[in-house]
Amino acid sequence: MSPVSDTTNLAPAMVGTDVITHIKHMIYTSGPAIIISLSIYLAIDIFYSPPSMEKSQLENLQELISNHFNVSLWLLIVPVAVVVMVARGLPAMPALILGIFLAVLAVPIFQWDYLVFALEGGVTFSNSYSLILNILASGFSMESGAVMTDQLFNRGGMASMMDILFLVFTAMTFGGVMEASGMLQSLAGATISKVKSIGGLVASTLASCLFVNISAANQTMAIIVPARMFALTFKEFDLHPKTLSRACEDAGTVTAPLIPWNTNAVFCASALGVATIDYLPYVFFAFISPMVSLYLAYTDKTMTRIEEEPETIIG
Description:
Elements lengths: L5 H10 L3 H29 L4 H17 L8 H11 L4 H19 L1 H7 L6 H14 L8 H7 L8 H19 L2 H7 L8 H19 L2 H18 L4 H13 L9 H10 L3 H4 L4 H15 L17
């Protein structure tokens, strides 16, 4: 739902509506899914008692973070600024670049103690600027002596993304070949002729998004292909394009991290240092969101018709 997200901008662009209309419509599915997911996490926190060793590790981690970093709500200024810039119409890429610039400026303001620690007291404009650029390029590095802490912090940087970018490029090439050859359309398009209701239409869209995520291994293709396939059918059912863009996000976006060979899952596993199969049982939102979407479709709730909002249709 973030206006900065590539999929949030891609889905409405593919079906012919604007991103704000799309985000507002997603609240009906993502909103309940988020609330239910948070409730489950809260229940786990209340009823699950971690082993004493695990508690000790968490306490040590909290102490280390508080000793080396300034943790403050003021740090939210940078991401909030990015969201505000995008909400006011600035394209995502310039907004992200400005966000990086603001984050660099925020380091000496909020994390001065870390600079003193990392540079062994000799903080100057030149060496602090060099350290920050090195972190951006090669990732953050610190030696705390605690294995779990070092595994958590010693990562990141643009250089660490090279392998992932190569895999993304390969997956997109594979997905493009499958789409151009008509294989995806033939495999997933067979369901369109069997659609008899709005619920069935949305269910077919969700299933197609999941199928493309599995077969093409790419989140972007999982939005583009079903959006193209079902656009005419949604129009025949007199459904507003935003209902299609929402369905594509409800399955195409959220199920990608669940498939180990999908580029999105590869990124998540690499960034978090946690295997897909390990975090899979805890991604409640990815399972709940399609279910909420199906419920609304079969009960014909929030399924906006074309004549209700013709002014928000582009093209």
